[in-house]
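User: Quick sanity check before I run a bigger batch. Here is a single chain. Can you write out its predicted 3D structure?
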Amino acid sequence: MGCASCASNANGSPRGCKSNGTCGTDSCNKLTVFDWLGNMEMPSGKAPYSVVEVRFKNSRKGFFTLPEGLTVAVGDPVITHVDNGYDLGLVTLTGELVRFQMKKKKVSEDSDEVSKILRKANQQEIDKWHALRDKEAQIQKRARELAIALNLEMKLSDVEFQGDGKKATFYYTANGRVDFRQLIKDMAQAFSIRIEMRQIGLRQEASRLGGIGSCGRELCCSTWLTDYRSVSTAAARYQQLSLNPLKLAGQCGKLKCCLNYELDAYRSALNTFPKSEVKLQTEKGVAVMQKMDIFKEQLWYAYKGEWMNWHMLSLSSVQEIIAKNKNKEKVHSLEEYSSEATVTVTEKPDVAFENVVGQDSLNRFDRPNRSKNKRRKKRKPNRRQDNV
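Assistant: Done. Predicted structure follows.
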């Protein structure tokens, strides 16, 4: 949905959430900052901060200074100054929190990144902005056709029009450098506007387009995540996940960013576990680690030559055996420390859940089809009685 496609009131403000960030989809909650100082009054004799944060399409935000005498609130459409024209955006943050945001992003008030707001947008400018947003899908399709005709190895993922309609920014992804000079000429001739090409990464593309992840929620990169840290397969190995690229990759084709969320907890927990290379010395034989369960603090060991029989030990028992081995003392056997009976890998291990997939039929809720033969058999006895 998003505020660009919501119906507008008479004063131009969008209906529904009224751009307060509670639509729960698309650009309404795109990197939204909660103003926890909004209900507090300014101290007497102190003027409010003259810089506000303005959001444009998707994740593009900027800081702008207010002219004297102009007061804005969160959600107000404003006209901002750009080179050779103007742009339209929505105010997302005001007050002292803007000062903290600028300090966090290391932006000073007198820098070139801080532009100025001209005025509030009127209804005619808002209608024009909505019309431009509706044209972006058609323009993007035509631009892709031009790129395919030139055999360019690039993907045009998104288009963003300027508020006055004189300029359009095309976001694309590519594996290498692309010579798009002829493409710019063709698009400028076809659309009669100024063209700007901007290359983005695969994660930035996913954040701009948005979507639903395998967890059932909106993508983190399209809602709150701004720091795209590199994710390696080592994060999956620490968490003992199967190295399946179909399960570990996100919509961007890269490894999921959520693999890093609990990585520090796994690393700290693994510090108490022995390494897989450490072997247990017993009088019955040498035992080698087969697997571990970090949450239950359990480990499975098997004797050399008896790989089919696994013995489950607790973490404290394994640490006790290792401490005795360091003192050159061997324990009698693993069975003394095993908390359960020996597990054979050919048997199904005990689990806390059952896999019920396939037990029920997919058409169990459908009405059964009664054959015509059964109906005829039911009617035959009645006919015999009539004849008698």
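Residues 128-204 form a domain with the GMP Synthetase; Chain A, domain 3 fold (CATH 3.30.300).

User: Great, the batch can go ahead then.
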